[in-house]
Specification:
Dihydrodipicolinate Reductase, domain 2, about 25% helix, globular, seven-stranded parallel beta sheet, seven-stranded mixed beta sheet, alpha/beta, 2 domains
Length: about 375
């Protein structure tokens, strides 16, 4: 079966990356691409690398244009997807690459985003440990999927195995991320100009203000809930609704505290996240290593490197792969996890397509590669 697809926000970075991946998908027909200010222009005027899609013209982003497809991807700025989702009720599968349907807490949404709160959808991080296994099981047959925030999924995948196994204390997490400016989107912003970032490292959203913090706490709460099946994980199978979302009433992120500091560095793509947390009392080095090995055993797109190795962002450029390096600092009594992802692939578009494959019952790795680009 061939599925017809519409991609909104197709002139932006996330929309362009979704299109790049889908162009190689044997079961997908990219029928419609939309934009706002760029409507009426050829797609290749804004995505000149997508030569195989040169026949497409950007249309207006309206519910009428997006309707009538099998799958709709919404690659819009935060706060803009929700206005379309109710009008797309007849579309079999909708995947939001923005934040509008990620959070389960209206209070967290109001504190970090503001504006109208929209219902949470199935969270598009298949490998994330949750009650009953991995989040993958909650994506099977889902009709509404929220692709993750790139920083959020990177940190969550880094630490969730240790939280789920009880070998780290989630009450004192510290994470510092080197991130490429493409994660901020394609709109012109003075602080992201080449003259501003070349030769410089620039911290931002310092002091607990970054919007991905509640998403990380939410994901780690789901991992912690897997220690006790009577505490239903917010992405857990027993609470899943028809669209793959879930009831978070019995889950709390209390006691999960994170100091989160992102730093823009002069690389177009990539995230290198260094996350640390205290070692739980009684946890041995073998217990700690085993937690991550068991969580990601057999996973194609989340890979734990051998002891003593740490990843580089260059190792995942263009790949739908998260590489993790695990170290145990007994002198500081902390576990250290270094994670590298391509923010536009595994961090956003790749996660969205991977989740789409699972929802449709297609081979999970279709059109996705573990191989990066070098040099």
């Amino acid at each position: 079966m061939t599925y017809s697809v519409a991609v909104s926000g197709a002139s932006g970075y996330a929309g362009g990356e979704i299109l790049r991946i889908l162009a190689a998908h044997p079961d997908i027909e990219i029928r419609t691409v939309t934009a706002h200010a760029n409507a009426g222009q050829p797609l290749v005027a804004h995505q000149p690398h997508l030569r195989g899609l040169a026949h497409l013209t950007l249309q207006d982003t309206t519910p009428e244009v997006l309707a009538g497809h099998d799958i709709v991807f919404l690659a819009l700025p935060h706060g803009q997807s929700g206005q379309y989702t109710e009008a797309l009720g007849e579309v079999p599968l909708v995947i939001d690459a923005g934040a509008d349907h990620r959070l389960t807490s209206p209070q967290a949404w109001e504190a970090f985003y503001g504006g109208a709160f929209h219902e949470p959808w199935a969270y598009g991080v298949p490998e994330l440990p949750v009650a009953g296994g991995a989040q993958r099981r909650n994506l099977v047959g889902a009709t509404r999927i929220a692709a993750p925030g790139c920083n959020a999924s990177t940190v969550s995948l880094s630490l969730a195995p240790g939280v789920a196994a009880g070998v780290i204390d989630p009450g004192d997490i510290v994470t510092v991320l080197a991130v490429g400016p493409s994660g901020a989107g394609k709109s012109l912003k003075t602080h992201l100009l080449g003259s501003e970032i070349l030769g410089s490292a620039n911290p931002y959203a310092v002091g607990g203000t970054h919007r991905h913090i509640p998403e990380i706490r939410q994901a780690l709460a789901a991992a912690r809930a897997s220690q006790n099946r009577s505490d239903v994980a917010e992405f857990g199978p027993d609470s899943a609704t028809q669209d793959g979302s879930s009831d978070a009433a019995n889950v709390t992120d209390a006691g999960i505290r994170i100091s989160f500091t992102p730093v823009i560095v002069p690389m177009a793509r990539g995230i290198l996240a260094t996350s640390t947390a205290p070692i739980a009392p009684g946890a041995t080095d073998a217990d700690i290593r085993d937690a991550w090995e068991q969580a990601y055993a057999g996973e194609t797109f989340v890979q734990l490197l051998p002891a003593g190795q740490v990843p580089r962002t260059a190792d995942v450029l263009g790949a739908n792969t998260a590489l993790l390096g695990l170290a145990i600092d007994r002198a500081a009594n902390r576990v250290v996890v270094v994670a590298a992802v391509d923010n536009l692939v595994k961090g956003t578009a790749g996660a969205a397509v991977q989740s789409m494959n699972i929802a449709l019952g297609l081979p999970e790795a279709t059109a996705l590669s573990t191989n990066g680009v070098a040099p």
